[in-house]
Amino acid sequence: MEIEGKSTDRNLMLKFSGELDHVGAREAIREMEQAIDAALPRRLLLDFSGVTFMDSSGIALILRAQKRVRNLGGSVLICHVPQQARRVLDAAGIGRLVEIR
Amino acid sequence: MKNKTLNYISMEFLSRSANEGFARTALACFAAQMDPTLNELEDIKTAVSEAVTNAIVHAYPNSLGKVSLKASICEGNVLEITVKDRGRGIPDIEKARQPMFTTGGEERSGMGFTIMESFMDKLTVRSAVGRGTTVVMRRKIASRLKPQQ
Ligand SMILES: Nc1ncnc2c1ncn2[C@@H]1O[C@H](COP(=O)(O)OP(=O)(O)O)[C@@H](O)[C@H]1O
Ligand SMILES: [Mg+2]
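YS: structure for the whole thing
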């Protein structure tokens, strides 16, 4: 699991690469929270284009991001979701909670 | 009615997280002989990941134990997957299957059973506290027109 971050003007973009399973998500959550605490974003963009596999562990990561950024008065957007991860998000109804593009 | 088994695999591994990726990939390789679509294969892989992760994370929270994974190809192009642990068990299965229910804290979402249910045709959970949990999932692979051999 790898995360690339870019932050400008309280916009934070995090690009995920690898498998967001239990192990991958645990590691990614830790890194993501550090990045959020440093950037204090109003807008957090989670770019999933490099996610090769995701299970419900990825949902925990998204919900965690949402909670954290909401506390800062900001919002989360998920983009470039590959088909497999998209099916997981849809099965869990995550589109009703977080914006997916 | 139990369909006739045409082929099966059976394996056992230690409840180490490193085996999650192995288990779902091995199962996908086995299921590939049923000629599934990419979506079907990914659904199977995801459901196996959920069941195996539960056995690793929840069944043996502070110890290591055995996880067994079986898959059978049954008549009618049905795949049956069984994931079994001898861990701490589930006190209330109905509650555990509810969306968003988790005892795993902030790093779990409580959506594992919901995803297994949605990706498979049938999900059966049997469990006894202190004795372990068995999850059985079935999925019919749509038969596609194949060119004559
Ligand atoms: N094999 C298992 N052994 C013990 N408890 C389990 C097992 N599988 C599931 N559970 C219980 O059911 C709950 C819900 O599981 P699940 O829907 O996969 O969500 P999550 O894994 O995110 O907690 C778990 O939090 C746990 O309490
Ligand atoms: Mg789970």
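YS: worth flagging: The CA atoms of residues 17 and 56 of chain B lie 7 Å apart.
IM: good catch. Also The radius of gyration of chain B is 15 Å.
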